[in-house]
Amino acid sequence: ELYFKNLSKQKQKEVMEKNGNNHKLRVCVATCNRADYSKLAPIMFGIKAEPQFFELDVVVLGSHLIDDYGNTYRMIEQDDFDIHTRLHTIVRGEDEAAMVESVGLALVKLPDVLNRLKPDIMIVHGDRFDALALATSAALMNIRILHIEGGEVSGTIDDSIRHAITKLAHYHVCCTRSAEQHLIAMCEDHDRILLAGCPSYDKLLSAKNKDYMSIIRMWLGEDVKPRDYIVALQHPVTTDIKHSIKMFELTLDALISFNKRTLVLFPNVDAGDKEMVRVMRKKGIEHHPNFRAVKHVPFDQFIQLVAHAGCMIGNSSCGVREVGAFGTPVINLGTRQTGRETGENVLHVRDADTQDKILHALQLQFGKQYPCSKIYGDGNAVPRILKFLKSIDLKEPLQKKFCFPPVKDNISQDIDHILETQSALSVDLGGTNLRVAIVSMKGEIVKKYTQLNPKTYEDRLDLILKMCVEAASEAVNLNCRILGVGISTGGRVNPREGIVLHSTKLIQEWSSVDLRTPISDALHLPVWVDNDGNCAALAERKFGHGKGIENFVTLITGTGIGGGIIHQHELIHGSSFCAAELGHIVVSLDGPECLCGSQGCIEAYASGIALQREAKKLHDEDLLLVEGMSMKKEEVVSAAHLIQAAKLGNTKAESILRTAGTALGLGVVNILHTMNPSLVILSGVLASHYVNAVKDVIHRQALSSVKTVDVVVSNLADPALLGAASLVLDYTTRRIY
């Protein structure tokens, strides 16, 4: 819509003058099947209604002309359109080769048609193999192409075909904001992209409901009521035909068991379609009293059928696009529409081994009524498209231009570049200190900077930026090429967005903080952010004991207790980025209070803060110091004093450490029984004091099948900084994070 706000009436006059005052835009609309005609028909009606601006030529090919699919070209004739050319282009067959041969046949026949028509522009829809032949022919014959519904993401081979047509097309009409952004990301010229919405919505949102009962009775029987029947439409998935046939069998079994009147439409012309028809006949669908199997339903009537259905099931794009306009429940099966934007009315069944999962989905969805969704259109697509067509200047060069993002000069053959050390800028935000380091690919800390962590958000962010800029400048002198910035911080982090969601109490004013944007803007480098426990696990995976280990757990024992979990070589974040909060595993129902507000957490027993708390209690009772220990008057009691006292034979200090070690060990046992890792790595300043206690608890408490787990102390000097660096190094060099 913004495009037309900037398009003045004067511009339209200039275009008309350039094109010749009497020249009408000759538009060729090519339709291949019933589905694309439902999107193209509203545009065709609009073009036909303005004969002073347009001449319309209609070319029909593909499954429109096949009897098995209902000879759907007749509905084009019934809509009073003159069909200029009919092209029989479908090569009958049941495998992928038939689709390739059909494309080849269309490519052979289309040049003669286009030579005779000589259109100014051809309108092509969607992502079918027939449409690829149309776009290829038009592009090679220097005919402008307007592509409808480019930029969308679904599944199977359709994505590749859709994007291939996008690269051939000169103009683009897309349906959603996301699709528009995808087209821009694909380097298409923004001035030639129109966000119009789906043309079929112009018809959907103006559909009249007054006579829907007669339509329902015509297709499903006299005794059927609204919201008490199902519409099923399922197509083969050409990249996995066997699986899609199996899914169709399970769908029919579930529908038979569900025992509701069902209208089943025949599948599209695709590799595997004949096998699906055979499955229908094998199960007796065409003669079953609960089923009506049809090759085609006119779009006007189909609208009313899905609008008043109790549910639609299958893998048709219609289910995730058009049906949302009515709030009808939809069950989307398999991967054919993976990536499509959907409303809340769609329930996905990605995979099914038995009919039970599909049957359960039917029980959940059938008869519900959801809010109407207008993701794909607002009912005004056609007027926008007609304006867009009128604005096309035929005097402009035909060769399309791509809008590539700026690319820096290639210096890959410069000896200085080759000799640079690929490195990461690593940031560790601790409760006390803020540290920045330059870390090499081998895990060497080339240079490190340390400052006290400021107490306020503004001061902290300013200091981070200042230290990072300083380190990045110094990296040039050290011959280090900085690939990006990795940040390790306490609290809960959304690594996808680079945002600290909630901070620990040790770092104040550190919640809902976007770290990625300001640092990336200042340094012009990519930025990754993650929780310090996760970073420790990543450090072990890249540089430490976890290298090459498929499943392991890292526990940090320091001021607090944290950790990270590596499962099948990948870091686990969890659905709300709260995975591996290992310090808050509860090991006692009535234990000491934890900083999180709960009681009996591991952290309340075994963290540095917990040990300091117990040390202060002993000191206040004059029970801490033993022979060989001394403290200055102003010296603060710490966990280190408790450990020293235990080493010198203080039985009470020994008991506290034993309890802390037991609590940590019980937490590890719970982890073993939940995740079953092959390795547990204890990291942090307290790790060496706890390792034997943890092993003892595992030996006494764990199931025999996990007792053989290795428990080791980390040999990494700085896991937080190394882990933050691995965020950068793994992604930029091997793309595995």
TrEMBL record:
List residues of the UDP-N-acetylglucosamine 2-epimerase domain. Answer: 53-390
Annotated GO biological process:
UDP-N-acetylglucosamine metabolic process
Q: Tell me the route in metabolism or biology where this protein functions.
A: Amino-sugar metabolism; N-acetylneuraminate biosynthesis
Q: Please provide an example of a Pfam family that matches this protein in its UniProt record.
A: ROK
NCBIfam families per the UniProt record, alphabetical? NeuC_NnaA
Gene giving rise to this polypeptide? Gne
Q: Know the name of this protein?
A: Bifunctional UDP-N-acetylglucosamine 2-epimerase/N-acetylmannosamine kinase
Family, as annotated = In the C-terminal section; belongs to the ROK (NagC/XylR) family.
Q: Which reaction does it catalyse?
A: an N-acyl-D-mannosamine + ATP = an N-acyl-D-mannosamine 6-phosphate + ADP + H(+); UDP-N-acetyl-alpha-D-glucosamine + H2O = aldehydo-N-acetyl-D-mannosamine + UDP + H(+)
| Record note on quaternary structure | Homodimer. Homotetramer. Homohexamer. The hexameric form exhibits both enzyme activities, whereas the dimeric form only catalyzes the phosphorylation of N-acyl-D-mannosamine.
What keywords are annotated for this sequence in UniProt? Allosteric enzyme, ATP-binding, Cytoplasm, Hydrolase, Kinase, Metal-binding, Multifunctional enzyme, Nucleotide-binding, Phosphoprotein, Transferase, Zinc
